[in-house]
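Researcher: Please predict.
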Amino acid sequence: MTADSAAPVIARSAAELRAAVSGWHRAGDRIGLVPTMGALHEGHLALAAALRQAGMNRVMFSIFVNPTQFAPTEDFSRYPRREAEDLAKLAACGADLAYLPAVEEIYPDGFAFSIVPSGPIVADLEAAVRPGHFAGVATVVAKLLIQAAPDLAAFGEKDFQQLLVVRRLVRDLDLPCEILPVPTVRDRDGLALSSRNAYLGTPQLAVARRLNRILAEIAADPSRLAAGPDRLRDAGFDAVDYLVLRDAETLAEPAPGRPRRLIAAVRLGATRLLDNLAVP
């Protein structure tokens, strides 16, 4: 890591961001980006560490709660926003820049375009549960990659379908950036770290930590998949949106010899939890 605990440069406009980034490019720096919606935790900071390990000597974070990926019934208004705490964490991890745009900076008055993914990769799972979600994700990620011009952008594997959508976005639109997938960071009990975990009270956290344990048992023996939804409900989850075994690269039904991924989304009160595991 090249940076110390100095506060990161703060950019609130695309012009300020580009001014900083263009100077780094001229200096020959390799630049990494961690796109986030804030409420940062150790999972986000692990993405920065992975970028450093991949040779990026400049690491920047974007913090933007993107309204276009939330449905009207979802938690946009109450999504945790903790700018001061986030900036302190970025200083501690040695981030070089924090991009904190307002909604009007990303979606100016009269904004009229969006990127709508199609094909098997968005045929179901989150795309079915949250219609329009991936159009919002693809549009904002494309804008961030264009504005920030990173060499490498890191995305966690916890939101596995999102990771595949972003990789396809970069490939299909020939964006000059590589995507670095980073394994899910978990607490000591196996719960995948997520900003939405802040919504869970102590009794709900105890239930939430059963999700990974049940998935691990199914991943070790996929014959248990059919009984999985009942097991999750018996463990205390209020609903199971999906629990599926899919091809790890296309999200199609898995074929023999192909890499597989066990993917789940469950509900606990008003909170949705996502998790996934590689299946040998």
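Model: The chain has two domains: 9-182, 195-275.
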